[in-house]
């Protein structure tokens, strides 16, 4: 709009004007006077050129130049990108690494190595957990070893039974195993079932003779306990096994038994038809 | 049945309609073959009037599952796929050589020419072998040289015999229909290839993953296909077998893929007999038989039927697993006797009397045996085991194995004073 040579003298004039009010305040002059002076200058300017609006808009922000520099706005989208030295780059340690060194004694379930991914593989008498943690499957002494016959570059962790045992074992040697069990006498199920059949016991009371199974009654009494809700009743698990006790067995489902399937299907269809008819009757009654 | 008939219909229609005129030579043989009506079936039906098809179903034509099952019960397997049998029902059964496909016949000519060439090669190689055998050792350049040369030439001859027939469509068809004659090298070769494609891989995987191979024997490269049957039902390698089922000795089907007869030793070993005192496992030999002849055509071996005077060293003992013991691996090994020479049965019987802790490794070393086949099944405690134990007089029938408590490691303080 303006030629630069026209603008240059205008700027000089502005500079002079801004200095003027500050000087006036310092000299404890009346503020009204300065404002009137401003107004007069603007009127002069308007007289010289047709751009009074422009000069006014340029003058108004000049009231606080220093404040503008420090009020920076950070929108949410900008802030979410993170700071330059954010702490998320340096998270807390996950405490990975060896928990048991080579030669240390471990029991089954003892964690030997925590890792991300499979830096180490489970070897003899060891197993790998859900997060690739290596743990002992047998009691023994930890060994860290390579087994080129099994895999050329995998590192293995194993457990040996002897303190001076060596890993890897030769490929054709029989595996060394432990039974880790003790022999305990047990009652075979048939004999247990025979013993459970209680003798018949006759009781003579006031209201006649009662015949019942002695052991069974005891068992039933033992089962009835005070349950939550102040109820004397059987435990839920024993209720759930009622069918098993009674010797009721469901036939295993056989998908090839089309005759049974047909009967079931027709029964279901009949039932549905009946339900439908009942519904309709109710509706009809309501309608009437 | 309807499905396969529908599927094969377009092919049959094409066959019957397009070639109505056919070839002149063909019309002489089967004048009615290329008419647009399906005559073969009608003929079959007219024949069936005397004996209806469902009374005596033909294994090459049967398509209904019910009739197939009936045939199987009689011990006759239906030939090929059901789709193919359905297609054959309506076809005129033209022999291969006369099929009216020009490209097919041209291809056959190429194959026939190749076969002739191979037959000539076979003749020349066998002549060469005869000539070399006629030469003395000095003329041939030493005994070793002559031997190695002969061996190489014989191998080449075997290879040529297979190459001569391997591309023959009739051979392929016969093999796929299960009508291959295993006394011929080509069918043995095809059977071996088929076995190695899948069944052998499964077997090797099972015996290595279940550690039979380093535990029982140091290594085994199966070259015979072994199938195991308990009460006429086949047991896949590594399957669990009910204790009651395994009271009787199993039957074997040992398929050899080489010519000639072999004498083998058959051993069934349990490598997981728990030993509480030792805190480990023992071996037990459940069956041992020597001098069992097998060949490509003589495959069936019934362990219960082998002769007690000349073959069975240790008769079958039913395997049982104590309650709570880990599963028992019962591995069966077919061990080839050295040079297929019979072992001295009386000596073996006198020596091998103890079932317990008879190691297969020891046997292998003592009698120079080489494992050529293997099979594996497992047993564990089940509802019938106790009964079987009482039946065979198992000494610790009502002893159960429970897990031994392992003492936990002493508690270690997580943050001792030195850490603070």
TrEMBL record, chain A:
A Pfam entry, by short name: Ribosomal_L27
Keyword Cell cycle: no
The organism's place on the tree of life at top rank: Eukaryota
Record protein name field: Large ribosomal subunit protein bL27m
One GO term of the biological process aspect: translation
Lineage: Eukaryota, Fungi, Dikarya, Ascomycota, Pezizomycotina
Organism encoding this protein: Aspergillus kawachii (White koji mold)
Record keywords: Mitochondrion, Ribonucleoprotein, Ribosomal protein
GO molecular function: structural constituent of ribosome
Location(s) in or outside the cell: Mitochondrion
GO cellular component: mitochondrial large ribosomal subunit
Automatic annotation (TrEMBL), chain B:
Main location: mitochondrion
UniProt region (Disordered), positions on chain: 38-61
Name by which UniProt lists this protein: Large ribosomal subunit protein mL38
Role: Component of the mitochondrial ribosome (mitoribosome), a dedicated translation machinery responsible for the synthesis of mitochondrial genome-encoded proteins, including at least some of the essential transmembrane subunits of the mitochondrial respiratory chain. The mitoribosomes are attached to the mitochondrial inner membrane and translation products are cotranslationally integrated into the membrane.
Gene3D superfamilies: 1.20.58.1180, PEBP-like
Organism of this sequence: Aspergillus kawachii (White koji mold)
Keyword Mitochondrion: yes
Alphabetically ordered keywords of this record: Mitochondrion
GO (cellular component) term, any one: mitochondrion
Family designation: Belongs to the phosphatidylethanolamine-binding protein family. Mitochondrion-specific ribosomal protein mL38 subfamily.
